Every structure is written in structure tokens, then in C-alpha cells.
Amino acid sequence: MEKDFLTLSSLSREEFIALLDLADDLKKNPKKYSNALQGKTLLMIFEKPSLRTRISFETGMTQLGGHGIYYDLSTSPLGKQKESISDTATTASRYVDIIMARLFSHQHIEEMAKHSRVPVINALTDYSHPCQILADFQAIREAKGKLAGLKLAYLGDGNNNVTHSLIFGAALCGMDIAVASPKGTDYEPQKEVMKKAHDIIKKYGSKSKLILTNEPSEAVKNADIVCTDSWMSYHIPESEKEDRVKKFMPFQVNEKIMKLAKKDAVFIHCLPATRGMEVTANIIDGAQSIVFDEAENRLHTQKALMLKLLKVK
Ligand code: CP
Ligand code: NVA
User: Fold this and answer.
1) What is the pLDDT of residue 151?
2) Whose CA is nearest to atom 1 of ligand 2?
3) 38 is catalytic
């Protein structure tokens, strides 16, 4: 594996599957790993809010015998623009063994990784959210027994960190993915992501189909997994809300849409969710939803990730 984990597209198919396999073992046999990171410290840098990421990383480190430090950028010299990213990363990496950061700009996390001696994990940027997809794919494999050959339908904001990482994940493991979003570059997945995903498919000679559409019913037809995400990601200004709600409402995941997917389709969402917006309450709280398995799996997959990056496994 590369030194850092900034995007799923940096993993090989074998590395991706090995991470999920290790996460399954960590879930089944947590005690086996309770001293694996004894004496190690994880620095957790946050420029945006979080429930799951913060708690799962810190708990994960504790369960592996290590220690996690929560560091809110609004209280740091970097947050006040007084200290550069390179000085921050160079300094911090002389103290700690591994760093995770949730930042606005993807370029900033790349810069952080460049100047850090120790592995850096992307815990969400505006561009991608690779840790989330590890958890999602573990949950999907638990529910469906496989990944290759399934079809995942994503409805809503396509120009979105979670969407981008799902596209890489699907390409890596031979899954079809159909993204239905409003027309226009503001809402569709970024071209560079599509190109990278097609390169991954070519590299593995896989049969993954990547479908972009503006028609939700086309995307969900025959889907094994239906997914959506917030229309108001952390980086979207509140002033855009009214316009976005109007544009995204036809892409809401509701009963009518779920009926078009396969009968045994599961519903996933990275959370936080707004019921009545991107998904209705009867779907997210209904029998097809596996959203809390996904949330739980953040813990297991990130423990696996830290063990691999620190070369303990
Ligand atoms: N899914 C996710 O990353 O949640 P948080 O924003 O609560 O960390
Ligand atoms: N797309 C969402 C994901 C939250 C975990 C956001 O960036 O806010």
C-alpha cells in the first residue's frame, strides 16, 4: 500500500479486498488485536464537523491499544492562517505515528501528506471520502455476500465526495454504478473522476459499467443497492439551499423509487441524513435500510486501515 490513504483510486483491487477481509476479522475477533497499536498515537485534525468519523477513529485507536488526539483546526495556528500546512504536517509528524484529517480542500490534504513523515488518512475532503466507502462495501458484502456483478444506484448530488469515492470503489471491485443527478457540472460527477474510474476498469479488464443519467428511474432499474447523500454537504453554503432542494427533489429516494429497484435491494446512506429531503423516513428507517451497519463498519474498516498503513498487518 502507498504511504498515505487519500483516495480509493490509489489502492489496487487486491489491497481493497484485503482491507475488507481484515475488517471482517476485526469485527469478528476484536480482542485478537487489542494490543496491536500499543504506544502509537493518532492525530485527528478536523476543519469540519463530524459524529461518526471522530468517534469511530478515536474508539478504534483505543481498541487497538493506542491513543487518539482530537485537534480542532479552529483552535490552531493553521486554522487562523498563521501557520502553513507544511510546517503543521512536518511538526505533527515528529510527534505522532499516524494522522487523519477532515479538510475542505483536497489539495491541502495532499500537501499535508507530502510533508508528513507518517501516513495521512483522508477523513473527507470536498472531493472524496474514501473511508466511508470501505465501510459501505463491507456492509454491502455482508448483506449480499459479494461485490462484483452487483448494481449500485446513486441518486442526487453527483458532484460529491461520497459519489466520487463510490465510483472508484465500484470500478475497483467490478460493480456497476449508475449515478442520477440534475444536469450540469455543478451536480454531475467530475470528469477527472470518471476518467480515473475508466482507467481502473481497463487495468483490471473488469466488466463494471459506469452510467451517468439525469433520470432517477433509469438508475434504479434492477439495482441491488440504492444510495443517496445529503444535498447540503458540509461545504455547501446555506444560501444555496432553496435552489438545491428544488433541483434535487426529483431525485429523492422514496417508496416509489425503491419499488423500481430489485425486490431485495438494500438502501445505504453515509449519514448524517435529512429525512424528507434526500430520503423519506419510511425508507431510511425501513426494512431495506442498512445505514447503521455502514455506520458501525466505519470502526472496523478504519481499524483495518490503520493496521495496514502502520504495517502491523
Ligand atoms: N459519514 C460520516 O463521515 O459522518 P460524520 O460526518 O458524522 O463523520
Ligand atoms: N457529502 C457529505 C458527506 C458527509 C459525511 C458532506 O461532505 O457533508
Assistant:
1) 98
2) 233
3) no
